[in-house]
Each structure stands twice: as C-alpha cells, then as structure tokens.
Amino acid sequence: MTPFAYDLDEADIKRERRKARDLRASQWWKRRLNKGVCHYCGRATPLKDLTMDHIVPIARGGKSTKGNVAAACKECNNAKKQLLPMEWEQYLARLSHTEPPAEK
User: Fold this and answer.
1) What stretches of the chain show up as alpha helix (H) in DSSP?
2) CB 88, CB 80: distance < 8 Å
3) How many Cα atoms within 13 Å fall on the side-chain side of residue 86?
4) Confidence (pLDDT) at 1
5) pTM score, whole prediction
C-alpha cells in the first residue's frame, strides 16, 4: 500500500488548496465554525482556534469538498497531520492505552 497518493501533481494540489480557500469563505463553513466544537476531540473551542482539516488529506488523494473537511482545534489538526481516518483512530487508541492512570 502506498502511504501517499503518488499520482498527484503540483497542479492538482494547488487546485485543491484553492478550493479549500473558497470553501473557507463560504457561509456553510462560517456556520460550521459557529458551532465552536472540534470534530475530533469534541471540545468547545474559540472560533479563532478552529482550523479546516481535510479528513482525507489532499496529499493522500482527498478533495476540498464539504464532505471531506471538518472544523478541528489546532491541537488535533497538528496531531493528525497526514493521517487517514483509520490511522487517526489507531493513533487515538494507542494514546488511550499509554496514558498513565489518573491519580486519586
């Protein structure tokens, strides 16, 4: 399995980034942000701290469409990087198993 989409050229990536900029300016996206909740961790997040995350990253063949973008806090977006949804789920599962138990 190839980890990144190998058939994307620079023009494809630029086109998707342009679409993402257009989508960020849309009323649909502004309503998404107004919910003030991170798609991944579910925490209430100030609007200025929410970012647009491609659920399937552009570098992995994802598109800039309403069904493939989510509002994410900067922490989650930075941690997710270029992971696919199934890889992100595995990452979160590993984190929950390696966290030390809470002190009483």
Assistant:
1) 10-24, 27-34, 74-80, 85-98
2) yes
3) 2
4) 47
5) 0.80
